[in-house]
Amino acid sequence: MTQAEPVEAIPQPRPTVDATPRAGQPYEYRRRPLVEPDWTRFPGWTHVTRDMWESAQWQRVHCVKNIKQLRAVLGDLVDETFYADLAEDQANTATMSMLVPPQMINTMVPDGPVTTEAFYTDPVRRYMIPVASDRRTDWASHPYSARDSLHEHDMWVAEGLTHRYPTKVLAELLSTCPQYCGHCTRMDLVGNSTPAVDKLKLTLKPVDRYEAHITYLKAHPGVRDVVVSGGDVANVPWKNLESYLMSLLSIDTIRDIRLATKALMGLPQHWLQHDVVEGLERVARTASRRGVNLAIHTHVNHANSITPLVAKAAQTALEVGVRDVRNQGVLMRGVNATAPELLDLCFALQGEAGILPYYFYMCDMIPNAEHWRVAVWQAQQLQHDLMGYLPGYATPRIVCDVPFVGKRWVHMLTEYDRERGISYWTKNYRTSIEAASGEDVLAKRHPYYDPIDTLPDAGKAWWSAQA
Ligand code: SF4
Is the whole-model pTM more than 0.90? Predict the structure, then answer.
């Protein structure tokens, strides 16, 4: 990178958000064109050209991995209190190490001057660069929180292959991503160890892991749907990913393949590289010939993250034959847990980027996540408030991933103790670890827990007495 390169084609300022009072309707839709925020507003990127910005390699090399690098980007726009707060979180509570591509940092405080206060309150910052003062001091973790809260590792049938639902598997090809989210549900496995979490390690060579997956899937024709994930498939060298996908496509019982990649938003430059686009086209053509539904599932949590480059990456995938690009966001307080925020995001996805707003998951019960999690009744209210604005097929379902059960729509609980914040759920299938058990798991009620700070005083007192 040369410091002296001229700056060219700097993006235009974002149009101001329509400030018309939202009278009459709880939510007033206005189309908002996508804009790539001007990255040269950050002192560390004043020299960065459009060519540099649009290079996947430049983005990867300039990912922010530590406080020193963040300071080099932000300079003195953000004061020392913020960096000290961040250092405290990293030393004591963070479950994920820091890794944020420039593309994502550029969607923080996109509209106004970058100040300490604006950076603190930014929704994307709140989940990508969490600080100690974000976390709760009363109930930072729920007593039933767990590292592998969904027991995916317990359900491995081969290294990285989780067989939870009867007809579907989750294939974790690797344990890294181009970006690390503070709330990652796979914090047990994904990313580098932090002072608070010593991560589980994959031990097989990738080639042996992939072969074990394919062998299992050939031997289990009842599995028809494979979520190819990690980590993030954008970190699998394309040649290896294509070879894995072609192996899946050679198994005639596999009918759905979904590629999980937050990088479509966090690093859209990756999905716009020529070799990746050409490779994706080969895979999509093969899938189409064999009648297999090939889709990309991404993970966007806020409307500010949808920029023209993200829309271009999604539309390119559709153009080369991927059948659908869908979003699975995570519902988080301080980030998107209001109906207008969710609707703004859904309209940006559906109307501007060609990405189907598919699911919002409730944030899982991992340690130190209580400040993000919402209660089931809050999620039910949000689902209610989303109805009727988007086309029916593009109205997202808010789901709770109940440990040992799986995804349930948030209204599907069978019983709910609002005082103690315990909901009970049932299921209609056995997971791989229950298949041989004599226990009647189909009759069992499985609990899920609301954040304790959302409970009435009597409920809080009950949990304090348990502790
Ligand atoms: S991209 Fe997905 S797997 Fe990777 S850190 Fe974020 S939530 Fe976890």
Answer: yes
